[in-house]
């Protein structure tokens, strides 16, 4: 299914002098397309590293990663560039909007880079801007937007090219509780409405209850996985 994710015995290591440090160790997962996956774990447990591997921003030391039918671990840089453009939508803790462009221009930019003509890109960007609730702020620059508005624009930008998978790395970590909840509800709602797989890294255990799958990492290993309603999911090993 579009948006499915399969990892087999994935390890990511870094050299520290003469020592090799495993940030992720022998991780195996199967995530069905359209699932909302919440990843928790202490700082340094490998959460962001796992997200970067899924996004094709880094490669595993060993193991295989297949996302939406694409072998990410063994793709060339040119293939990964297209993969990041077409298959993945990334939302970071900080919005990373281009300060010299309006919210609308920031959202339509991936469409232009992906080959849409400007009229088609602008029409889709305007629809997405309205959908995330900042229609009246589309011509404002990032410095003129609130933190919540900037993250809403970042969410719209992430879905501009209709990717099958959304990857979110602490997307509300810089927001207060009220605006965090707003953006979380928007992101979860969009993912469900559009049928996107969402993999979200967070320190907020409350979010785990809102997803389909809760995955917890400890020192680079998958410690446990829960499925819907907190029950052990038969689709996943209880311990890895």
Q: TL;DR of this structure?
A:
It contains seven helices and ten strands. With 240 residues, it is of the alpha/beta class.
Task: Report on the architecture of this protein.
This protein is of the alpha/beta class. The chain has a domain at 5-87 and 163-228: Rossmann fold (3-Layer(aba) Sandwich). Helices cover 32% and strands 27% of the residues. The chain contains seven helices and ten strands. The strands form two sheets. It has a six-stranded mixed β-sheet, sandwiched between helices. A hairpin with a 2-residue loop joins strand 9 (213-218) and strand 10. Helix 3 (103-113) runs parallel beside helix 5 (147-158). The protein is globular. Mean pLDDT is 86; it is low at 229-240.
Map the helices and strands.
Elements: E1 5-16, E2 19-31, E3 36-41, H1 47-54, E4 62-67, E5 70-71, H2 77-86, E6 88-91, H3 103-113, H4 118-131, H5 147-158, E7 165-169, H6 177-194, E8 197-201, H7 205-208, E9 213-218, E10 221-226
Helix pairs in contact: 3-4, 3-5, 4-5, 5-6
């Amino acid at each position: 299914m579009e948006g499915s994710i399969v990892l087999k015995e994935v390890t990511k290591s870094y050299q520290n002098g003469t020592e090799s440090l495993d940030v992720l160790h022998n991780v195996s997962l199967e995530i069905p397309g359209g699932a909302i996956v919440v990843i928790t774990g202490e700082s340094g447990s490998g959460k962001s590293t796992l997200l970067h591997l899924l996004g094709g921003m880094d490669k595993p030391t060993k193991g295989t990663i297949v996302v939406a039918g694409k072998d990410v671990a063994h793709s060339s840089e040119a293939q990964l560039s297209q993969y990041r453009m077409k298959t993945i939508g990334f939302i970071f803790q900080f919005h990373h909007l281009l300060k010299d462009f309006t919210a609308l221009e920031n959202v339509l930019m991936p469409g232009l880079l992906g080959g849409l003509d400007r009229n088609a890109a602008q029409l889709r960007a305007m629809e997405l801007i309205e959908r995330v609730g900042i229609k009246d702020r589309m011509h404002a620059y990032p410095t003129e937007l609130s933190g919540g508005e900037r993250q809403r624009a970042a969410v719209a930008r992430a879905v501009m090219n209709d990717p099958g998978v959304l990857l979110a790395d602490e997307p509300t970590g810089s927001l207060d509780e009220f605006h965090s909840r707003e953006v979380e509800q928007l992101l979860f709602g969009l993912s469900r409405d559009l049928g996107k797989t969402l993999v979200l890294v967070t320190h907020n255990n409350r979010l785990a209850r809102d997803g389909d799958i809760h995955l917890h990492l400890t020192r680079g290993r998958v410690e446990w996985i829960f499925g819907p309603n907190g029950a052990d999911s038969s689709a996943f090993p209880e311990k890895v």
